[in-house]
Amino acid sequence: MLKVGVLGAGHLGKIHLRLLNESKKYNLIGFYDSDEIHGKKAMDEFGYTYYDNINSLIDDVDVIDIVTPTLSHFDCAKKAIEKGKHVFIEKPITNTLDEAVSLLALEKKYGIKGQVGHVERFNPAFTAVKDAIKNPMFIETHRLAEFNPRGTDVPVVLDLMIHDIDAILSVVNSEVKTINASGVSVISKSPDIANARIEFENGCVANLTASRISLKNMRKSRFFQRDAYISVDFLEKKVEVVKMQDAPEQPGDFDMILQNAEGEKKQIYFENPDIESNNAILDELETFADAINNNTVPVVSLEQGTKALKVALQIIESF
Hints:
By secondary structure, the chain is an alpha/beta fold. The protein folds into two domains: 2-112, NAD(P)-binding Rossmann-like Domain (Rossmann fold), CATH 3.40.50; 121-274 and 311-317, Dihydrodipicolinate Reductase, domain 2. The protein is 33% helix and 29% strand. The strands form two sheets. Strands 8-9-10-7-11-12-13-15-14 form a nine-stranded mixed β-sheet. Helix 4 (73-81) packs parallel to helix 5 (97-110). The termini are far apart. Residues 156-216 form the GFO/IDH/MocA-like oxidoreductase domain.
């Protein structure tokens, strides 16, 4: 079992602490929080060992799980990596692109493993159809949330849209060509609603919308590709896969057949992939343990987290 320590005991940090404590792949040593009063309160409430010195915790573990505010991600990760510790960093990887690039250099220098917490990669609806998403040419995403003061210290792009940015980059095998975007601050001092259009070198276009001032919650992505339409509902954990193939010469009574202007006939059929219930946060943490133990590339590497941050920052700059 890998000895692990958690930095940050806020809302998400407490979830990580509970799951790491339950995991059979980790031995939870303890946690650190810069607010000593808050840290000791969490210790009294949950029984986890509280460290009042970040360096002491880093020294005692193999893996550091960073669940602190984004502004401190770089400093926390740098301390851990320079002591040869593997790091799991909640999204976004860092506050600036320069910081992310610096972490990549440190990762290589010290030979450690790093993973970024883009948890939607482990959403069972997405994993059920990811392999079926091949060369999509148009993608549309909507990530809408009711207002919650937590997270409004950063633009909605870094708070919500970055989940979809990362998922899109994982299935589009092409470099970004151009980005056009708009964002509006409604309640917060940073944009609360944003729309971005990303064009890739291979011709794929992605249209992303994110809002944290919606009257309802929605997390849907739609992928259009040759002879297929794939819809992923990240919130409800449902998928819809509609495919087309050349129509048989003698269609059955219940076959759905379409004929285009050129006279070509296509048969429409539906696929229903199995969706296995899971805990996505536990999965991302445990696959990181597997990557360390098996010396393989983490599912969401620091490099991939850096690419997602780069696109997110380009979107913000284009407002």
